[in-house]
Amino acid sequence: MAGESRPVWASWKHYEIQLGIAGSVALAAGLQAWAPPALFKPIKWAFEVLKSWGLFTFPALVSVFGLVLLLAVRLLRGLRITLGLSNTRQTRAEAPQIRPLRWQLVAIAIVAISLITWLAFNWLLEIAAKANDSSSARIEAIRTALTIGAGTGGAVALMLNARRQWLAEHAQTHTESDSAQQRANELYVQSVEQLGHEKAPVRLGALYALEQLAQTNTNQRQTVINVLCAYLRIPFTPPSTSNVLLYGVSNDEIESLQEDKETQPEESPSESTTEAEKEQELHVRLAAQQILTRHLSNEANPGHLAADYWPGIDIDLRGATLFDFTLPKGANINVGQFSQARFYGHTSFANATFSSPASFSFAEFKEEAVNFDNAWLARGADFEGVEFSGETSFEKSRFGGELSLGGDASEHAEFSFRGTTYKKSVSFKNATFSHAPNFSESKFFAAAEFTDFGPGQSFSFAMRKPVIFADSQFYGDAIFAQGLGYRLRIPADFSGAAVRVDSTVETKRVWPLNWKEERLACDSHGTDSASGVWYKVAAEE
């Protein structure tokens, strides 16, 4: 079956055993071909002795075959035990099972040594009987036979010593591995405990200790990331006026805060201490963010080495409070959870890759710019209920899954979706923007929904600027309608925009008021007319 794993002893890791068997067969074949006949005289003599005992009759052959088969199976099993292998399924993290040496193997070794010594003794005595000086030859035969027995015993002893050495090395490896794992566990527990310390330097040290632990122990990386995310999810109120530029408060707001501070009563020592502690905690959180983000990219960046990349990381920052949160160039995130998070200062997910659906639902982006340029969201994203307060850019980003964006934008928020590609359906239902967004050069390969998208409801266009869809392309449904199905009344620019109509696919298109479809005289978009016909979006007269 495809789902079953092969035994460890048959896997490619132990190919040397298979090569050893093949080499032994080749060696035997070579000896059979060119070895001198004298080499096989002892073997021939042994067969003659066995034949004289009647061991080559049919019943005896069956018995001998069964005995040899059992011995072979037992020998192979003993060999696997000796090498520390097992034919049971094991995961890569499991260590090979160590078994004690069986007494049957010892008995077989003793019998084999005795048999080889006896055969050599009889064969050499037979040769010595034919010599001229039979007495001296017999003494030499006995000496040689005992030497052969001793050599055979020495080979067995060498095998046992090799096994003993392997066991010692194996035990040493396990001892070192257990010690390293114990040290890692102790460091992890100690660092986690220090994260709750009242002193900021102690917390900083704990963060860097956890980073070093994850760098040297790959199986601890996701655990360390989870701890960092959990720390950042702890509720935190930033300091009021100190280092405000760090998390993106405007100059006017700084002056206002300073004036309010001058008119307020002088702070008590306890209040000053609280503000200092908040500022120290802010530095600790910034360090946690840097540790979290600098291991997400396999590209070299300032302050980041490609070798520091931790692949397959999941990030859970739901409800976290983040400051100047910026991912490095080429960041790769498996699962990204940022729902209900609060982002202060400049926030950048530019050039990032999200392998799983990304969630930013009900997140708050405060004050500064938000950058998703060239981001690749392979399985879409959820931006429902998001609050944007600054310039937001999704230029040339790609959405491989469904996108849902509906939320509020402050009067300072400007949006650009120029050159964005939407592979799946996209919904801007109930999205509220104070400035007209830019969708120029975008490609909508599936349904695009812009319902409830007008003054007083979704988009507030007091500035009288049009929503720009110039040079955009629509391949599926395009719905610009209000709640009751009426055509949306918004200022818009569809110059150069086109829609592909496939007669084999049922689509629905409702354009804003004062806009309609007109068939193009020729295919200016390089599309085969057999797969669809291109129309342009033109202004109604």
From TrEMBL:
It comes from Saccharopolyspora endophytica. Pfam families: Pentapeptide_3. Keywords: Membrane, Transmembrane, Transmembrane helix. InterPro entries: 5peptide_repeat. The chain crosses the membrane at residues 15-35, 55-76, 101-121. It comes from the Bacteria. The lineage of its organism: Bacteria, Bacillati, Actinomycetota, Actinomycetes, Pseudonocardiales. Residues 256-280 are annotated as: Disordered. This is Pentapeptide repeat-containing protein.
